[in-house]
Design brief:
Helices cover 37% and strands 23% of the residues. The protein has 366 residues and is α/β, with parallel strands linked by helices. It has a five-stranded mixed sheet, covered by helices on one side. The protein has a five-stranded mixed sheet with strand order 15-14-16-17-18, sandwiched between helices. A hairpin with a 5-residue loop joins strand 2 (39-43) and strand 3 (49-53). Helix 1 (16-33) runs parallel beside helix 2 (124-140). The longest helix has 18 residues, at 16-33. It starts with 12 loop residues before the first strand and ends with a strand.
Amino acid sequence: MTEETSSKPMRRGYTTGACAAAAAKGAALLLITGDAPERVELYLPAGFRHTFELTGWQRQDDSMATCATVKDAGDDPDATHRAWIEATVSWLEHPGVEIDGGRGVGRVTKPGLPVAVGEAAINPVPRRMILEAVSEVLEEHSAARGLRVVINVPEGEAIALKTLNPRLGIVGGISILGTRGVVTPFSTEAYKASVVQAISVAAATGNRGLILTTGGSSEKYAMAMFPELPEEAFIQMGEYVGFSLSHAKAYGFSKVTLVGMAGKYSKVAQGAMLIHSKNAPVDFGFLSQVASEAGADEELVQEIAAANTASQVVDMMTAAGNYAFFEQLCLHACRHCLIHMNGEMTVEMVLITMKGRVLGRAEICG
């Protein structure tokens, strides 16, 4: 099966795991044959073959060889785009393939990840891809001995600062990732996978409660609000409210607190569990109903029904000094969260302003 040309306007890329496997295959060929391959072909878990361009060849006698490839993330806004992914291979005295991480590849220091504490942060699928690529070369050339493979990312430590790795307890560099070998531009799957990984680490490090936020600003205020909690307890879930709640319950958390702006969380209050603007427009009729529940006069209720943005509604109710409105929004949101999870958990909602001031707060035990 060959790679088909995508009809999508955005160009896909390739994972750090696929790049590491390609570099490892190139290094193995260089060590065994003495020839520097300009490119290698891999069969990717996504179901097609792809040719990777290689560079950075070095060979030390007959004992060690290095090869690299430059990661192409396509049109995805990936921190590792254009990163130099390098593999160094050396002979073992016995058959088999050993895989480790070197410079710029992180080490796992916290439980809850798919890699054991103390090991290089090379995930299971990339490990398998590296193993298969190198084993193929060994078999093709009837090698009696095995190879040790060390993956290096020279700029990995700096790149890792732009990722969640420090919070997840992955120190010293990036993770070698990927389950399909390809990167889909603006991949929701990749973001969801990072949320699940963060929840897993939070559970494995002994947390019983999670703080879910929609992004960096709300997380900053949440951390100031709950200074007693460790960094692992805070998860940036983006727009994936229902998805994150379901995984929080699956991992056995007893309480979830959602902290964020009223504009986004008003959508949760109206029952939306995916709060992207395309999926869940603000229901101003609902907001006017909540305002009525909170004791707003009829004129203000009608103004809210005719509003253009959620932030406009927030300004109206703040100016009116009606903070019962925000508490009612919190209660509606908590109820919908519990319905989504079929109860058995405590849900708290905290609505804040753009400057971190608390507008409303409520908690319901399911």
